[in-house]
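Follow-up to my earlier ticket, as requested here are the two runs.
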Amino acid sequence: MKKKIILILIILAVVGYFGYNYVMAAPDDISKSKVNFKISAMNFANEFNENEKNATTKYQKKVIVVKGIISSVENNSITLDGKVTCGFENKVDLKKGELVNVKGLFIGFDEMFEEVKLDKCSLVK
């Protein structure tokens, strides 16, 4: 009887784990996803500097369009106004100083560098 109960609990745990991950998974193509927020890079970063916990709760797993000036460009990422880092799937062909709108999925705040992080980004025209 105990073995049967343990087996049922294990099955429920496995099903629960995969079910949760399926429901909470981020969409594969953010560029086609509904935008939850539109905000400037500076205002976005300021929300985290004022209250990181509230800002994280507000933006967690949300699709956001951020407007800012490119302050640095690396292979697959750009930084807007020195405060918001946007990761792209492929190498980006953008230049420092350009004003852009970037759509991406919020993935966190880097306390060490005081940067907001977006992933699965795409340019918005």
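Run two:
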Amino acid sequence: MKLILYFEEAYNELVHKVSWPTRKELQNSALIVMVASFIIALIVFVMDFSFDNIMSFVYKLFY
């Protein structure tokens, strides 16, 4: 009985109490996430590329 009551309350909350975002709000949020992900990936790429070049320079000093 507790399981059935749980599902009934969960359904009621999802249908009547949750405010779901509109399609436009979801598109804007997705765009923000994509742009932020691209910027972070670009920063990580630049850091990796720089570190690789710095370490190559340091290794060449000792060989």
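The only thing I checked on run two: The chain has a mean pLDDT of 96. Let me know what else you need.
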